[in-house]
Specification:
Blueprint: E1 3-5, H1 11-14, H2 21-30, E2 35-37, E3 43-54, E4 58-78, E5 85-91, H3 105-116, E6 120-121, E7 124-130, H4 141-156, H5 163-177, H6 185-190, E8 193-199, E9 202-207, E10 214-220, H7 226-231, H8 239-258, H9 261-268, H10 275-278, H11 285-294, E11 299-302, E12 309-313, H12 316-334, E13 338-345, E14 352-353
Parallel strand pairs: 2-6, 5-7
Antiparallel strand pairs: 1-2, 3-4, 3-14, 4-7, 4-8, 8-9, 10-12, 10-13, 11-12
Helix pairs in contact: 3-4, 3-5, 4-5, 8-9, 11-12
Domain GHMP kinase N-terminal: 112-192
Pathway: Amino-acid biosynthesis; L-threonine biosynthesis; L-threonine from L-aspartate: step 4/5
GO biological process, one term: threonine biosynthetic process
């Protein structure tokens, strides 16, 4: 990446490949003209994975990325439209998503990423979105779109921004569609587990898990909009339930740091605040949880706002048994067919070029 201004900027502004904020500072101090940043490529495609948020007691403060399906965003240079963002097309959404950039999570993430570059883009950006995740699934569908868009646009300009900074673009996007929380978009960008201490200001910790971790994800044909699932949350919580969730949240973090899948499973299985009010809204979920445990899962809960159910297992062989039991329970107890059922590993990479 290189920067240029009209007229030519001082040396400090030209050295903005890794620190684009220097270009703005040079403009202010030296009184130069507007500083621009050029793309380094004509087109970039980026992928961001599905995420599992909350993980039981980690409501709004814990999430992780999982391998398998995700969203792909392609960013293309628009030479004669500086700073503009347009959405050319969206596939895989059934025509439900808006092509108006300021009203779509990919458009919002792209717009915010351009703002973060630290200098005015000398071109516009056209986006295409390929949805690999179903809407309203509890698998971080909007976060995957936002993360892929942010990484694609950043890559178009030579990756001047670290992934951590792009979380701000994802937060702006999430705020428009599902709420101002980073437990999906942070792991979608960074991979692994992310503990969110605060969003204002953003304060998070990526947690490393030693070894492999296996998840069973079963997504039934039932939509659970985040807004509706948040509406049932209690306004006040008894002290006993708070103490339980604090202990289980601590156990969840301990399990991650110790590389203990069984402890993670036990912790996510023990939410006493959110799952008890959301679970009954997902037909058959109680039976699905019981079936998962009986088939050998360490624990089972709701992924994000649902309706996807997530279980932690020791290995893929146990995962296949648990998956079959969960699918059967959704059909028998909930009367629900299943969109997808899979056994996947923790994704430690997050957003990447494809």
């Amino acid at each position: 990446m290189h920067c240029h201004s009209r007229p030519a900027p001082p040396a400090a502004a030209r050295c903005c490949a890794r620190r684009p904020h220097l270009a703005i500072r040079a403009q202010q101090v030296a009184g130069q003209g507007k500083v621009y940043i050029d793309p380094t490529e004509k087109e970039v495609a980026a992928f961001a994975p599905a995420t599992v948020a909350n993980l039981g007691p980690g409501f709004d403060w814990m999430g992780c990325a999982v391998e398998g399906e995700g969203d792909v965003v392609t960013a293309r240079v628009l030479p004669d439209r500086p700073g503009q963002v347009v959405i050319d097309s969206i596939q895989g959404d059934g025509g439900r998503l808006s092509l108006d950039a300021p009203k779509n999570c990919v458009g919002i993430a792209a717009i915010e990423t351009l703002k973060l570059l630290g200098a005015a883009p000398s071109c516009g950006v056209a986006l295409t979105l390929q949805k690999g995740l179903p809407l309203g699934s509890g698998l971080g569908s909007s976060a995957a779109s936002a993360a892929a868009a942010a990484w694609a646009v950043n890559s178009l300009f030579g990756c001047p921004l670290p992934k951590e900074q792009l979380i701000y673009a994802g937060l702006a996007s999430e705020a428009a569609v599902s709420g101002y929380h980073a437990d999906n978009v942070a792991p979608a960008l960074l991979g692994g587990f992310c503990l969110i201490r605060s969003c204002e200001p953003l304060d998070l910790q990526r947690l490393a898990f030693a070894g492999e971790l296996w998840f069973v994800l079963v997504n039934p044909r039932f939509e659970a909009p985040t807004a509706e699932m948040r509406a049932v949350l209690p306004k006040e919580v008894p002290m006993k339930q708070v103490i339980n969730n604090c202990a289980m949240g601590g156990s969840l973090v301990a399990g991650i740091l110790l590389g203990d899948a069984a402890l993670i499973g036990k912790a996510l299985n023990s939410d006493a605040i959110v799952e008890p009010v959301r679970g009954p809204l997902i037909p058959g979920f109680g039976a699905v949880k019981e079936a998962a445990l009986a088939a050998g899962a360490f624990g089972c809960t709701i992924s994000g706002a649902g309706p996807t159910a997530v279980a932690i297992v020791s290995d893929p062989e146990v995962g296949q048994r648990v998956q079959a039991a969960m699918v059967a329970a959704f059909k028998a107890a909930g009367g629900l067919e299943v969109n997808s059922a899979k056994v996947v590993r923790l994704d430690n990479e997050g957003a990447k070029r494809v």
